[in-house]
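This protein record is not my work; I was only asked to verify it. Take the sequence as given and treat only the tokens as open to question. I have pasted the whole thing underneath without changing anything:
***
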Amino acid sequence: GQNLHGFFNQWLNYPYYPVYEYQWSAEQVKAGVQAKISIKQTQQQTVYVMPIDLKFVFADGRDTTVTVQNDKISQEYQFLLHQMPVQLILDPDHWILSENRELTPPAYAQVAEIYRVYPNPSPGKVRIELRHLLNENVLVDIYDIQGHLIRTLQSKGQQFFLHTYLWDGKNDNGQPVASGVYIIRTRAPGIPQKQRKVVILK
């Protein structure tokens, strides 16, 4: 079998534990989503050598776990994923006696991303889906092409990181809007706005 003396000796000879600082990013590429992870051991004593599980969580609630071998003070890893992750959890099952510190998360995890708007074009009713990790109540404003605010929407439900908004194609006075182009814009305190166009065709 595998010789595990080195693995156990690092715990017996040093009365401490590893302290991991990690950060990650992800970007869309032609083949999928390229995720980059940086892990740094910041404890004062020895460098611990062991496998670490990394769990990627996606907006639809699904996840995938990969295992990396960590044996240096600072290491970087890259993975090709099938969709954009919204969260990375180091050692999700707590197999390692350690302290884990996630550094500043990726910028897109701190915004309310407009994930999907459909149908688009629409004869009237529109479903808007945002994905985010924010604790703030994110509103969705609807503007006409002249920039006039015509409707503000509240979330109608949440499934994991996916938040759903429903627009019935009416303004704040309950009147159906005319055919044309409308702007969907997110709004939350201190959070960058995101926007998307939707076309109403009657």
About this structure: The chain has a mean pLDDT of 87. The domain at 111-200 is CATH 2.60.40.1930 (Immunoglobulin-like). Helices lie at 5-12. The two ends are 71 Å apart (CA to CA).
